[in-house]
């Protein structure tokens, strides 16, 4: 999505060789019209799939998931992050390593919100090593639901998570794929 690449190049800040800050339009201050353009693009990419639900992880995936779900006319379920391993109730759970915080957390989704009747699209703002998508896919598997694929705002292609998922046969569509990131230069795939 050229408009996203332009926005990243104009407003993104490479905080290090592998962390990109896009808080001015995507992660903290949200450009709602632009977020919905991204959501519409995702809906278009997956228009031929019989998707019944979108899942994402709190917090920063929710806005893009909501925008895509609005155009796809499906509900969004977000996994909650829980530091304790003894979450009560009937839940699907996955241990996920957080790229940004460098720690492990449990992601949980109540069993009532995901079932074997669902065909699910995973949506997230970023894809780096792929751990968030793998954790969400694990919960989709626990539910016996079908995985339609993943739709990502910004994939950092140089970290390899997206290509590893594609190699396993998972459909991964990213609106922008960054191949190389330097303080004043971002190269797209
Ligand atoms: P992964 O699990 O693929 O390694 O990382 C994806 C998750 O980490 C996303 O949910 C996203 O919130 C966060 N993340 C990964 N890389 C970045 C980044 O460069 N910038 C920001 N803002 N978040 C990131």
Key terms:
6 helices; 8-stranded mixed sheet; alpha/beta; 189 residues; two-stranded antiparallel ribbon; globular; binds guanosine-5'-monophosphate
Structure described in brief:
It is built from six helices and ten strands, in the order H-E-E-H-H-E-H-E-E-E-E-H-E-H-E-E.
Protein architecture, described:
- There is one protein chain.
- With 189 residues, this protein is α/β, with parallel strands linked by helices.
- It has six helices and ten strands, in the order H-E-E-H-H-E-H-E-E-E-E-H-E-H-E-E.
- Strands 5-6-4-3-7-8-9-10 form an eight-stranded mixed beta sheet. A two-stranded antiparallel ribbon has the order 1-2.
- Strand 3 (53-57), helix 4 (62-72) and strand 4 form a beta-alpha-beta unit.
- Helix 3 (32-45) crosses helix 4 (62-72).
- The longest helix is centred in the first third of the chain and has 14 residues, at 32-45.
- It is globular, with a radius of gyration of 16 Å.
- The model has no long low-confidence stretch (mean pLDDT 95).
- The chain binds guanosine-5'-monophosphate.
Mean pLDDT: 95
Which ligands are bound?
Answer: guanosine-5'-monophosphate
Helix-strand topology string: HEEHHEHEEEEHEHEE
Rg from alpha-carbon coordinates: 16 Å
> How many extended strands?
10
Oligomeric state of shown chains: single chain
Shape: globular
Helix content: 25-40%
Structural class per helix/strand content?
Answer: alpha/beta
Strand order, biggest sheet? 5-6-4-3-7-8-9-10
Biggest β-sheet description: 8 strands, mixed
Portion in strands: 35-45%
Please work out how many helical segments DSSP would assign.
6
**How far apart lie the N and C ends?**
11 Å
- Enumerate the spans where pLDDT stays under 50 for 5 or more consecutive residues: none
């Amino acid at each position: 999505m050229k408009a996203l690449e332009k926005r990243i190049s104009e407003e993104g800040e490479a905080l290090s060789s592998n962390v990109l800050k896009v808080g001015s339009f995507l992660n903290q201050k949200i450009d709602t019209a632009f977020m919905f353009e991204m959501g519409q693009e995702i809906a278009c990419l997956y228009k031929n799939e019989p998707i019944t639900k979108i899942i994402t992880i709190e917090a920063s995936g929710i806005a893009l998931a909501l925008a895509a779900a609005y155009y796809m006319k499906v509900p969004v379920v977000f996994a909650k992050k829980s530091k304790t391993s003894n979450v009560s109730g009937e839940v699907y759970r996955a241990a996920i390593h957080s790229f940004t915080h460098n720690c492990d957390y449990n992601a949980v989704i109540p069993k009532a919100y995901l079932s074997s009747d669902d065909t699910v699209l995973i949506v997230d703002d970023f894809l780096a090593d792929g751990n968030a998508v793998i954790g969400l896919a694990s919960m989709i598997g626990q539910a016996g639901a079908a995985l339609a694929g993943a739709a990502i705002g910004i994939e950092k292609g140089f970290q390899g998570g997206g290509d590893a998922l594609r190699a396993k046969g998972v459909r991964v569509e990213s609106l922008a794929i960054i191949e190389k990131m330097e303080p004043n230069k971002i190269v797209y795939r």
